[in-house]
Design goal:
The protein is of the alpha/beta class and about 120 residues long. The protein is built from five helices and five strands. The protein has a single domain, classed as Response regulator (Rossmann fold, 3-Layer(aba) Sandwich), CATH 3.40.50.
Length: about 120
C-alpha cells in the first residue's frame, strides 16, 4: 500500500514504552505521529489533520476529558479512540456526550487497537 493511502494516526500517549510498541507494530500499516502531552497534541492538530486520534486519558499536563472537549470543539468529526487504565471513565464520557469511536481498556492487544483504528471513521 502506498504511503498516500495509509491512514494518518496521531497517538497521544506519554508512556515511551507504549509509543515504541506502537511504532514497531503499526509502522507497516499507518503513518504515525506522537504527542506525549495534551499541549503537544493540540499543537500537532493545528499543523496537520490526522485521520484518527488515539487518546490516552492520563496525561502529565491535562485531564483526558478536558483535552477531548478541546479536540471536539475544534475537530468535531475527527475519529477518537480512547485508551485508558480505568473502566469507570466510559460512563462519564457518555454522559458528557463527548463522541468517540472506540474505547479500549489497558492492557490491550495491539491487534485490538489496530482493528479499532481501521474501523474508526
Amino acid at each position: 500500500m502506498a504511503d498516500a493511502e495509509r491512514r494518518r494516526v496521531l497517538f497521544v500517549e506519554d508512556e515511551q514504552a507504549l509509543q515504541i510498541s506502537y511504532q514497531r507494530f503499526f509502522r507497516p500499516r499507518f503513518e504515525m505521529e506522537f504527542a506525549g502531552t495534551g499541549a503537544e497534541a493540540m499543537a500537532q492538530l493545528e499543523s496537520q489533520a490526522p485521520d484518527v486520534l488515539v487518546l490516552d486519558m492520563r496525561l502529565p499536563d491535562t485531564d483526558g476529558i478536558e483535552l477531548l472537549r478541546k479536540i471536539r470543539s475544534l475537530h468535531p468529526d475527527l475519529p477518537v479512540i480512547i485508551t485508558t487504565a480505568y473502566l469507570s471513565i466510559e460512563p462519564q464520557l457518555q454522559v458528557l456526550d463527548l463522541g468517540y469511536s472506540g474505547y479500549i481498556v489497558k492492557p490491550f492487544d495491539l491487534d485490538e487497537l489496530g482493528a479499532a483504528i481501521d474501523a474508526a471513521g
